[in-house]
Design brief:
The complex is a heterodimer of chains A (about 600) and B (about 575). Chain A has about 600 residues and is α/β, with parallel strands linked by helices. Chain A is built from 22 helices and 10 strands. In chain A, about 65% of the residues lie in helices and about 10% in strands. In chain A, helix 4 packs antiparallel against helix 12. Chain A is elongated. Chain A starts with a helix and ends with a helix. Chain B has 2 domains: about 325 residues, ABC transporter transmembrane region fold, CATH 1.20.1560.10; about 240 residues, 3-Layer(aba) Sandwich (Rossmann fold), CATH 3.40.50. Helices cover about 65% and strands about 10% of the residues of chain B. Chain B contains 21 helices and 10 strands. Chain B has a 6-stranded mixed sheet with strand order 6-7-8-3-9-10. In chain B, strands 2-1-4-5 form a 4-stranded antiparallel sheet, with no helix packed on it. In chain B, helix 9 runs antiparallel to helix 10. Classes of the chains: A alpha/beta (about 600), B alpha/beta (about 575). The interface between A and B is large, with 183 and 191 residues.
């Protein structure tokens, strides 16, 4: 049973991509459209310019066949007039048309790129301003796809769909008017085309939509699988899973191909069918036109014009049908983007953290939970005196990291309060607070930039001397020296010749450069050997004299020399004191400490 | 490329056949039309009286031809998509297979993000390119040249006029493509950059906020965004010029046809019907050229993508399988013989002249400073990398002589960074041993000290792990990856600093359970904490890529100053009293 389960579900190929299929229709299209309109409203001149140009172009497009038919009539001798004038008029119209086309192309590309730029900037800015909670609780891939897929859809719609929708509607109306004016009987006959087109589009599009939904879902699944397998490649190789993974991938890929062929074939049939329909209308026009011409009701030129018009007529109808679908997808995409944009930003208001105050941190009866059913901190009260080093110890899930989250105001307390130097941090602006507190986390985040820029990330104005001092203190100057590019070595995301421990050292250097009043090390040296760690601690000793540090570590050697060791369990403090006191107590800390000596045999 | 096209040649031929049918019908049409106009409506050849009968018969014939054309078109359409999609599928599968045979340096060279876009987006582009090539290019070329041919048959002068305009149109197109061509790869690279920043910043948001660098990141993103938009705009502008320029040239040609046509009609050498047909053909040529432009756009894009795909397909796997060996006798013996190693692409040595034998069933711990080469050392055992000098032997056989699969089947390694997959906890553990029975999984979880927290979740073993294990804490992730390694019946077990997030009590319990459950297994443990390694049979101390000392805990305490130093750094002064 287990075996069956496993063979059926290759990781990353289940449960993904559903969102692609489900939400192709906006929940509230009207509201979203109005909001999109506000973006265009800011580009008034361009939008107006484009509309003018589209109208001009469309009018020319409608006029051209009429002029052409006049010229032919003159040639056929059915109409009096100078051919040269007719041709001159044609040239003029063609020139106008070309210029209009060019301007439309230029304007629509500028407009679409401006809007894309704006959307991207706003969305990215929003992501940066969102509280940490949002990204902790939402799939990163989903957020990414708003930026890549959804904004892209909006862009295509702006640059291509909208002008063609507009000119389509205009062309259809104009053509109908002229056709009726020339010969209403033939115009009526041409409408057969419309009916056929609409019918064909309706039948086909339902089919296509069904298939394409499936295709989108499979595509999402495939992308997810590729991403997961490639980023977890080391594990794939270590467990000889290349074969299995490939098989799973191939199955999805085959299925995707089948769905893809179905979608493409059924949507591709539209082309020949439209071709057929437009030719049928051609015959109808020729036959009936000939009939009418024999009766002397119309001239040959009119037939020629009708043939062109009939073509002009069926194309936009087909286009409108297509564009409508694109438009719907884009609106749905825009709605998803707006949902993110409407998320509440982190509140940046608040006073500055006062300088000169002692950096005493006080947690006063703090309660906190990430979600309602699980209390993480219970009545947590702790004073971290200025200039002291406090260590938090406890099992996984005892709430140590939560303390950091609260102190940095990544999350806010449910009740109780936290103060620094007597100032309640909920009244302090987040930027000011965070400038004074430096953190180093276990999962080291470094950016794909030079080592220099990574280290001065928290303090862009740092001098080279400061950087060097920080690197010396965090014991990474030797490593930087050996690297081929030295300080200017570019770090890559995978960073093959920098080990996990070395990355931690760089992160520590970054924190030192910030010159913080409070330093938090959350498992910051877990991959660093204890001797290097000791050296860093010794170096820190002097500079941290009138600053406060909070250290979280499993390795008791990391925290042994702390002024205060706080043992936590299930969100409450069970013991506190310094190393010697706690050992004497023979309580929880003593138990933990003894396992160091009991070692593997315990 | 040919390799991928070859199996589908019949479909390509079928597609071509369909196109020829479709295009022929399209081409015959205007001729019939000119007959309908000349004979049926105007009666040019019968003294000015039209003939409705001709109009009807010709009309019916035309509808028949059109239907036939439509059928051919559908045939073409179906075979083109069958062809394109299958070709893309083959390519995609080959790419993925190739990627799965990459060595780690190869993987790092491409980068995760780039590989993902190559396998997904780029292949789709290539697929479109092929479909466009077969349908679009063939159809439009046939139509364009067919129209020109028919035009010539109709009237030489008209043919010459269009032919005269043609080089200019082609010139305009060539100019645009020549200008825009280099922009496509650039565009792709800039898009990659935007996505990379986005990905990096989303996962590093805590640090960005902690360093109050939100504005800095917005500026960085803004720069990348501006650059991409600028390039995009440049391509769009180039193509915005291409269409109208080609258009106006063709319009001029049509005007010329009308002008000369009128001369010929007056001179009696052409009929109005012929002029009309000529204009229809000319419009078709124009249409064809416009479509050609679009086809060329996708082709330029497609080619850029094909190059990116080709880079994957052309990368030879760097680690070649060995010839394979007879089942060696010893089980779990690992030897390093004068091994030196530096990461590919650098000449900075990570390991130098390592000689080390790890006996079957022995537990060996590796300690050393950050950057001393611990991870590199254990990575050589499952042949994640090849040695620069010397040899690594498993069970007396050089690892390069094994088939990679056979070698890695003997080894179970827990990596420093716990990578989990988005399937259930049960399936994640079962990765270690496909088809593992539920009892085996539960035993492994118990050894890894993971069962308690697994059972405390609502769905127990069926709890889904979110992408990259985001829903789990560091310690939980580590325990699950230990369970995954333990469930495997491997003779060599390697822990690469993989219990660092566990508290000492849990780690000790894990080690004890492991010792009891798998006594005969060779264990190589990279660790930082003395407590984790104290009970090992032997402890190897690495310093700057060399073995500084090796021996039992007690022996090293006496003889190795570095070890003593590590010990002191962890045990403090109390150590002397208690230990």
């Amino acid at each position: 049973m287990a075996e069956k389960n496993i063979s059926q579900s290759i990781p990353g190929q289940a449960g993904r991509g559903l969102r692609f299929a489900e939400v192709q229709h906006a929940e509230n299209a009207g509201k979203t459209l109005r909001r999109i309109a506000t973006y265009f409203a800011k580009e008034k001149a361009m939008v107006l310019g484009m509309l003018t140009v589209v109208i001009l172009g469309t009018l020319c497009g409608i006029c051209a066949p009429a002029l052409q038919s006049r010229a032919i009539d003159i040639i056929a001798g059915q109409r009096q007039g100078r051919l040269l004038t007719a041709l001159g008029a044609m040239l003029l119209v063609y020139l106008c048309y070309t210029v209009a086309q060019l301007l439309q192309g230029l304007l629509s590309s500028h407009l679409s790129q401006r809007i894309v730029k704006k959307f991207r900037e706003e969305l990215f800015g929003k992501i940066m301003d969102l509280p940490v909670r949002y990204l902790d609780t939402h799939s990163h891939g989903d957020v990414m796809s708003r930026m890549t897929n959804d904004v892209e859809n909006i862009s295509t719609t702006v640059s291509q769909s909208l002008p063609s929708l507009f000119s389509g509607v205009l062309t259809v109306t104009g053509t109908v008017v002229i056709m009726v004016w020339y010969c209403w009987q033939l115009a009526l006959l041409s409408c057969v085309t419309v009916i056929l087109t609409v019918a064909a589009t309706k039948i086909l599009s339902a089919r296509v939509r069904r298939f394409s939904r499936k295709r989108q879902a499979l595509l999402g699944q495939l992308n997810g699988a590729v991403e997961e397998m490639i980023s977890g490649y080391r594990t794939v190789v270590a467990y000889n899973y290349q074969q299995t993974t490939t098989e799973g991938f191939c199955d999805t890929s085959d299925e995707l191909t089948r769905a893809g062929i179905r979608t493409d074939v059924s949507s591709g049939i539209m082309g020949p069918i439209m071709n057929c329909i437009s030719n049928i209308s051609f015959v109808i026009i020729a036959a009936f036109g000939g009939f009418f011409a024999l009766r002397g009701m119309i001239s040959v030129g009119v037939i020629s014009a009708f043939i062109v018009y009939a073509k002009q007529f069926s194309r936009p109808i087909n286009e409108i049908a297509q564009v409508y679908g694109q438009l719907q997808t884009a609106v749905a995409g825009a709605e998803r983007v707006f949902i993110v944009l409407d998320e509440e930003s982190e509140d940046s208001s608040g006073m500055a953290l006062e300088d000169g105050q002692a950096a005493t941190v006080i947690f006063d009866h703090v309660n906190f939970s990430y979600n309602q059913d699980q209390q993480v901190l219970r009545d947590f009260t702790l004073t971290v005196p200025c200039g002291k080093k406090v260590a938090l110890v406890g099992a996984t899930g005892s709430g140590k990291t939560t303390v950091v989250n609260l102190l940095m105001r990544f999350y806010d307390v449910d009740s109780g309060n936290i103060s620094i130097g007597g100032q309640d941090i909920s009244t302090v602006g987040r930027a000011s607070l965070r400038k004074n507190v430096a953190i180093v986390l276990q999962d080291t985040v470094l950016f794909s930039d030079t080592i220099r820029n990574n280290i001065k990330y928290g303090n862009v104005d740092a001098s080279d001397a400061q950087l060097q001092a920080a690197a010396d203190m965090s014991r990474c100057s030797e490593m930087i020296r050996i690297l081929p590019g030295g300080w200017d070595t570019k770090l890559s995301a995978s960073g093959e010749n920098i080990s996990q421990g070395q990355r931690q050292l760089l992160a520590i250097a970054r924190a030192f450069v910030m010159d913080p009043r409070i330093l938090i090390l959350d498992e910051a040296t877990s991959n660093v050997d204890t001797r290097t760690e000791k050296a860093i601690q010794d170096a820190m000793h002097d500079i941290m004299k009138d600053r406060t540090s909070i250290v979280i570590a499993h390795r008791l050697s990391t925290i042994e020399d702390a002024d205060l060791i706080v043992v936590m369990d299930h969100g409450t403090i069970v013991e506190q004191g310094n190393h010697t006191e706690l050992l004497k107590k023979q309580g929880k800390y003593y138990d933990l400490y003894m396992t160091q000596f009991a070692g593997i045999a315990t | 490329m040919w390799k991928y096209i070859k199996p589908y040649i019949p479909f390509a031929l079928l597609a071509a056949l369909g196109i020829i049918g479709e295009v022929t019908m399209d081409l015959i049409q205007p001729t019939i039309m000119s007959r309908i106009v000349d004979d049926g409506v105007l009666g040019v050849h019968s003294g000015g009286t039209g003939n409705l009968h001709t109009v009807w018969t010709m009309g019916l014939l035309m509808i028949l031809l059109v239907a036939l054309g439509g059928l051919s078109g559908t045939l073409n359409n179906a075979s083109v998509h069958y062809f394109g999609q299958n070709l893309g599928n083959d390519m995609r599968k080959d790419c993925f297979r190739r990627i799965m045979s990459f060595s780690f340096p190869q993987m790092d060279r491409f980068g995760t993000g780039s590989l993902v876009t190559r396998v997904t987006n780029d292949i789709t582009q290539v697929q479109n390119f092929v479909a466009n090539f077969v349908r679009g290019l063939l159809r439009t070329t046939c139509l364009t040249f067919g129209s020109i041919f028919f035009l010539f048959r109709l009237n030489h002068t008209f043919g010459l006029i269009i032919l005269g305009a043609f080089p200019f149109v082609v010139g305009v197109m060539a100019l645009c493509i020549w200008k825009a061509g280099p922009l496509f790869p650039k565009l792709q690279a800039q898009l990659d950059e935007i996505n990379a920043i986005l990905q990096e910043d989303i996962s590093g948001l805590r640090i960005i906020k902690a360093c109050v660098q939100e504005i800095g990141e917005k500026i960085r993103f803004g720069k990348a965004n501006d650059a991409q938009i600028k390039t995009q705009l440049r391509t769009l502008v180039i193509f915005a010029f291409m269409n109208p320029a080609a258009n106006i040239l063709m319009y001029l040609a049509i005007l010329t046809i009308l002008w000369t046509g009128s001369r010929q009609v007056f001179a009696g050498s052409a009929t109005p019907g012929v002029v009309m047909a000529a204009i229809t053909y000319a419009t078709q040529v124009l249409d064809g050229v416009l479509r050609l432009l679009m086809v060329f756009q996708t082709i330029t894009r497609g080619l850029a993508s094909w190059h990116r795909v080709k880079e994957i397909l052309d990368s030879e796997p760097e680690l070649k399988d060995g010839a394979g060996t007879e089942e060696p006798l010893a089980r779990g013996l690992v030897e390093f013989r004068d091994v030196s190693f530096s990461f590919p692409g650098t000449d900075q040595p990570v390991l130098e002249h390592i000689d080390l034998t790890i006996h079957a069933g022995e537990t060996v711990a590796i300690m050393g400073a950050t950057g001393s080469g611990k991870t590199a050392l254990v990575s050589l055992i499952p042949r994640f990398y090849d040695v620069t000098e010397g040899a690594v032997l498993v069970d007396g056989v050089d690892v390069r002589q094994y088939r990679q699969k056979d070698l890695r089947d003997r080894i179970s390694i827990v990596l420093q960074k716990a990578e989990l997959f988005s399937v259930s906890i049960r399936e994640n553990i079962a990765w270690g041993k496909p088809g593992a029975r539920p009892e085996e999984i539960s035993i492994a979880a118990r050894i890894a000290q993971a069962e308690d927290f697994i059972l405390s979740t609502e769905q127990g073993y069926d709890t889904m792990v979110a992408q990259r294990g985001m829903s789990l804490s560091g310690g939980q992730k580590q325990r699950l990856s230990v369970a995954r390694a333990v469930v495997r019946d491997a003779e060599i077990l390697i822990f690469d600093d993989s219990t660092s997030a566990l508290d000492l009590r849990t780690e000790a319990a894990l080690n004890a359970a492991l010792k009891q459950a798998r006594p005969g297994c060779t264990k190589v443990i990279v660790a930082q904490r003395i407590a984790s390694v104290r009970q090992a049979d032997r402890i190897v101390v690495l310093e700057h890529g060399r073995i500084a000392a090796a021996g039992s805990h007690e022996a090293l305490l006496d003889t190795c100053p570095i070890y003593r130093d590590i010990y002191d750094s962890q045990m403090g002064k109390e150590a002397q009293k208690v230990g």
